[in-house]
Recover the amino acids of this structure.
């Protein structure tokens, strides 16, 4: 049945909204009745969306042996994928001679000789198992400036304060390294953010109202009252807080339904922002998602001379949703609301928009075009074991630069696999989105309504359609000084293009590889660079010169994917180092 679902604002007052039922009849219900409604939710559109069959789904592997709870793209085009080590044997065997882990189930100590982590090769579409000794369930991560993954925290005595690293290699020899030093506080459901000086800040975790840094300086950590204040008793709703590094060097931090600008160097809240005018919880377990929209160094700058800054946060669940799901088996509708705020304004205010359907546990990924892909998740319930129903199969494209809010959301081609709790998605260099995972169960379970999923898919956004092949730039060389894109310095890119269109021309963009888990892509960032000139070399060859990011607060040091975008069509990304 086609349906229209409007006004999912969840205000504390009684609000009208429409729920479709048989014969296209409608009931008008109060907020309290709405919270208890568990009616199945069909595909939904609103006046603020456009429906298309854009995009394509490709099943890469029916099973990779583990469920993709966490994913990180590495700088050699491999993807590290892992779930957890205490949920029983996986479907991926470790190589002969690899030590087995021990785990406890039903008061018995059992051996587990299977892998719970793997390294996926994008070029060959193959993967190899990795052994890890400690428990990294619901952990966090970030890439150091040299491309090494620093992976922090997890669960239980053998994981919750653990620090692990993984350095990329091309010869199949690299493995997880477990460091002897430990974190200063328990980091289960924490968030990491790379900083301008190359350090990583680790914020929060269950009952951990604090933050600390890696590399470590003694056993230093800092109490963070904001996390204590945003903790809902019995529900929390402030785990995996949203962190974004701002061009002025401060952090934007969002937890539960509050947000602040934070000076982490001096342990000081610079400003608490006005709350969204919608009573929705946005962080785990009422899991929404958040992105820092593209930073344009080629556009209108703020009064400070830095790029203008906007944050977009979408989805979540109303107050009490987790309790109802966990203790009453009632899965209330998620929120369809998004809040967008321009932090570079003198008095920032949230501007609310509506997605085409309610969503909880959805990933939000920046595409090379600057648009945002909203993918995975459910329409009812929250994160947690058995806490949600009604998978959302349709990705939604949020068109960042569309001036008309009525035209910003585009509903894309639906998936065929539910991606619920513990699913993830990441952008890869060729512009595809890698999608995997989903395990809303305490252990591996392949018989429940939403079984543990071990498959790996690729979603091809509409810009990868053959129709746009002639508009797609192909990068030949990147000419830099000392193989580095330096701050504020000019560099050039040579490329070929079959059909050049002067309007809108060529955009040069840098995109970070993110660590994605629990619907948040940590360290996700896109910087659109200032172009100096474009030279036409031959029939289809061109050279574009651009300036590196202005400073390390705009683009922290490290490896980025460089994309050329022409007429809404991105090139294959190439790796560059920024410092």
């Amino acid at each position: 049945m086609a349906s229209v679902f409007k006004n999912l604002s969840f205000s504390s007052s009684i609000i009208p909204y429409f729920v479709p039922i048989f014969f296209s009849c409608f009931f008008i219900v109060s907020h309290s009745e709405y919270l208890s409604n568990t009616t199945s939710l069909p595909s939904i559109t609103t006046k603020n969306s456009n429906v298309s069959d854009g995009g394509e789904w490709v099943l890469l592997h029916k099973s990779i042996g583990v469920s993709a709870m966490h994913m990180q793209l590495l700088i050699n085009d491999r993807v590290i994928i892992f779930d957890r080590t205490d949920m029983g044997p996986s479907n991926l065997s470790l190589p002969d001679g690899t030590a087995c882990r021990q785990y406890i189930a039903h008061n018995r100590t059992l051996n587990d000789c299977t892998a719970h982590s793997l390294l996926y090769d994008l070029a060959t579409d193959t993967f190899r198992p990795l052994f890890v000794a400690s428990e990294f369930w619901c952990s966090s991560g970030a890439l150091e400036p040299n491309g090494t993954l620093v992976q922090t925290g997890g669960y239980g005595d053998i994981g919750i304060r653990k620090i692990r690293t993984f350095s990329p290699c091309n010869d199949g020899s690299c493995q997880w390294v477990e460091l002897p030093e430990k974190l200063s506080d328990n980091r289960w459901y924490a968030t990491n953010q790379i900083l301008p000086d190359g350090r990583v800040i680790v914020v929060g975790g269950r009952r951990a109202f604090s933050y600390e840094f890696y590399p470590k300086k003694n056993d230093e950590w800092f109490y963070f009252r904001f996390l204590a204040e945003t903790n809902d008793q019995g529900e929390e709703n402030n785990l995996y807080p949203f962190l974004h590094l701002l061009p002025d060097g401060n952090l934007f931090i969002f937890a539960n339904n509050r947000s602040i600008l934070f000076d982490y160097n001096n342990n000081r809240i610079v400003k608490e922002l006005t709350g969204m005018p919608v009573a929705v919880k946005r962080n785990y377990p009422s899991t929404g998602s958040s992105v820092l929209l593209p930073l344009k160094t080629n556009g209108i700058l703020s009064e400070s001379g830095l790029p203008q800054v906007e944050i977009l946060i979408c989805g979540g669940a109303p107050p009490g949703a987790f309790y109802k799901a966990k203790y009453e088996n009632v899965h209330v509708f998620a929120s369809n609301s998004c809040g967008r705020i321009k932090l570079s304004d003198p008095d920032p205010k949230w501007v609310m928009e509506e997605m085409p359907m309610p969503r909880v546990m959805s990933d939000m990924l920046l595409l090379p075009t600057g648009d945002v892909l909203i993918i995975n998740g459910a329409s009812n319930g929250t994160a947690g074991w058995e806490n949600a129903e009604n998978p959302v199969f349709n990705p939604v494209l949020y068109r960042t630069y569309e001036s008309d809010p009525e035209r910003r959301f585009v509903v894309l081609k639906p998936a065929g696999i539910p991606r619920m709790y513990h699913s993830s998605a990441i952008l890869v260099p060729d512009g595809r989105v890698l999608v995997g995972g989903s395990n809303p169960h305490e252990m591996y379970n392949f018989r429940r309504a939403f079984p543990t999923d071990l498959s790996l898919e690729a979603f091809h956004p509409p810009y990868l359609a053959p129709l746009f092949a002639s508009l797609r730039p192909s990068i030949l060389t990147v000419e830099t000084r000392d193989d580095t894109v330096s701050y504020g310095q000019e560099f050039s890119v040579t490329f070929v293009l079959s059909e050049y269109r002067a309007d809108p021309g060529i955009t040069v963009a840098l995109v970070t590889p993110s660590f994605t888990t629990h619907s948040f892509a940590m360290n996700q960032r896109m910087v659109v660079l200032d172009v100096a000139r474009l030279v036409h070399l031959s029939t289809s060859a061109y050279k574009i010169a651009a300036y590196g990011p202005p400073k390390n607060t705009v683009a922290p040091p490290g490896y980025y994917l460089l994309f050329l975008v022409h007429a809404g069509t991105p090139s294959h990304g190439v790796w560059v180092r920024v410092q």
